[in-house]
């Protein structure tokens, strides 16, 4: 298993812990506002870390095509989030745009 998959698994476990286990541990009590805000912000931050890690090639050589398609995908994701779409929709849109551009251009 490559290091990218270990990162995916670790981030997935962390996101699951933050979004599911912590509220369940609260036992139906209302979470403090600061904790609720931290949990809300943690998942996008983890996803950003995952994107950066997986987009950077292990060889250290970044081609312009790879960079441009990645930026186009991230741009679409940001546009979808700005348009009040869900994080899942933004992630799927970004992945589709990046994949199609890499297929067509490359």
Description:
7% of the residues are buried. It contains 4 helices and no strands. It folds into 2 domains: 1-55; 59-106. The protein has 106 residues and is mainly alpha-helical. The model has no long low-confidence stretch (mean pLDDT 78).
Main attributes of the structure:
transmembrane helix, mainly alpha, membrane, 106 residues
Provide a short characterization of the protein structure.
By secondary structure, the protein is an all-alpha fold.
Low-confidence stretches: none
Q: What distance separates the N and C termini? A: 26 Å
Please provide the ordered H/E string of secondary-structure elements. HHHH
Largest beta-sheet characterization = none
The tally of structural domains comes to 2
Total count of strands: 0
Strand content: under 5%
Briefly note the structural class of the backbone. Answer: mainly alpha
Shape: globular
The chain-level mean pLDDT equals: 78
Q: What is the helix content?
A: over 70%
Rg: 16 Å
How many separate helices?
A: 4
Layout of helices and strands:
Elements lengths: L2 H23 L7 H23 L8 H19 L4 H19 L1
Helix pairs in contact: 1-2, 3-4
Keywords: Membrane, Transmembrane, Transmembrane helix
Protein name: Branched-chain amino acid ABC transporter
InterPro entries: Brnchd-chn_aa_trnsp_AzlD
């Amino acid at each position: 298993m490559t290091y990218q998959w270990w990162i995916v698994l670790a981030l997935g476990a962390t996101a699951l812990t933050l979004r599911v286990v912590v509220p369940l541990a609260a036992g139906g009590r209302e979470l403090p506002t600061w904790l609720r805000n931290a949990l809300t912000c943690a998942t996008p931050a983890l996803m950003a870390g995952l994107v950066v890690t997986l987009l950077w090639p292990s060889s250290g050589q970044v081609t312009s095509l790879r960079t441009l398609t990645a930026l186009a995908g991230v741009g679409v994701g940001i546009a979808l989030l700005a348009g009040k779409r869900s994080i899942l929709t933004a992630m799927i849109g970004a992945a589709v745009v990046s994949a199609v551009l890499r297929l067509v251009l490359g």
